[in-house]
Every structure is written in C-alpha cells, then in structure tokens.
C-alpha cells in the first residue's frame, strides 16, 4: 500500500467541518463503497453518518 493520497478538501460527514490535516477516520460506505470521512470529535461521540451517495446510515 503506497501513501500517495492527494490533498483534497475533505469534510466530516457528520458535522461538515474541514478535516484536511486532522486525524480523521475514513472508511468506505458498506453499501456503495463511497469514501466517507469523519472527524475525531464525531468519531468519539459516535455520531451517525449518512452516505451522500446512497443515503446509507450507520454509526
Ligand atoms: Zn465531525
Ligand atoms: Zn453509500
């Protein structure tokens, strides 16, 4: 696995803040595979997220 990630504007899926440069969690939507980012605060609070692509909701 190479770390060739591009610096892009990333927003927390739950609260919408810009998380570029933060230790945010990223994962793929279990339903459609859309890449989802979540900030540390929302991860701690286990806020719900909603996939912007398919509307899947999860913890
Ligand atoms: Zn957040
Ligand atoms: Zn999805």
From TrEMBL:
Pfam families: HVO_2753_ZBP. Residues 12-55 form the Small zinc finger protein HVO-2753-like zinc-binding pocket domain. This is HVO_2753 family zinc finger protein. It comes from Halobium salinum.
């Amino acid at each position: 696995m190479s770390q060739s990630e591009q610096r892009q504007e990333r927003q927390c899926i739950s609260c919408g803040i810009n998380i570029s440069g933060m230790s945010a969690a990223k994962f793929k939507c279990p339903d459609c595979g859309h890449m989802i980012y979540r900030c540390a605060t929302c991860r701690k609070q286990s806020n719900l997220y909603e996939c912007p692509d398919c509307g899947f909701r999860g913890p």
